[in-house]
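REVIEWER CHECKLIST
Item 1: Sequence provided? yes
Item 2: Single chain? yes
Item 3: Sequence as submitted:
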Amino acid sequence: MKIKFDRYPFSMILGWSSSRFDLFTQCRRHYFYNYYTKFAQGVSPKQMLRLKKLTSVPLEIGNVVHHVVEELLRRFQKSASPINEEKFIQFGLSLCDKYFDSKEFIEIYYGYTEQIDRNAAKERIVVSLKNFLRSPLFDWIFSTAITESNSWVIEPDGFGETRIGGLKAYCKMDFLFPVGDEVHILDWKSGKKQEDKHRAQLLGYALAASLNNPSIDRSKIIPRIIYMYPVLDELSFTISDSDLTSFTETVRVQTEQMYTYCTNIEQNIPKSFDQFEKTHYTALCSNCPFQEPCRQAG
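Item 4: Structure as written out by the authors:
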């Protein structure tokens, strides 16, 4: 079974994504700084770009785990021979050093710590990878799904742009693959389970796969979140036509809410900065890369 995804010409209009709308609801000011960086006043473009590139320890742990699993799957597309667990663990550890050496961390920039505990990060990476490599899921991929590895879609290029109800949307999947008449979608997570948030992601993935491949029975599309730490766990559910119809309406409503913060929707030009209020839930602020300009703005 071949799975296809349409490509679209570039357009300025904003596109819905689960992560974009989450940020929009959490803190409008963070949303402004992240998606409308070039419109920020009082801070140089160079400094704003630096802040936007700030990362965090949990984020980089997730990036490393994603990268290793991606390489593992691509290796299976070339060879069905058993993998060397120790080799892949060592690859993950060396990748951790590469990532952590090349990134600037929120925790350091804002003085939460003087030094990143890289050993703790590596321990979490090792546990996550071992959980996956020793799981029934891994065995199933290696023994069953691998027979159609030439049809696997692994970390596709770009941002997963699609259309939902005629609206621009982004639904980038980690791993999509056929098994018989089924299409499985897996998304790797190294953080905690957030069922409501992640359910929206799964619905987006399933809908995108269905809309781009209308010949596939929707009931045969099986999306799952795979949690890698502290133990392997997953979130999955049966998706019905009514779920996807309802989600299409959700995307429309959420997109229109974000549109209300634009002065020009087609060109994605935002309203003035003072229209983007900051969150009152200050517990979120310690993870924000834009604390500096936010404090200066008052």
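Item 5: Key structural point noted by reviewer: The two ends are 55 Å apart (CA to CA).
Item 6: Recommendation: ____
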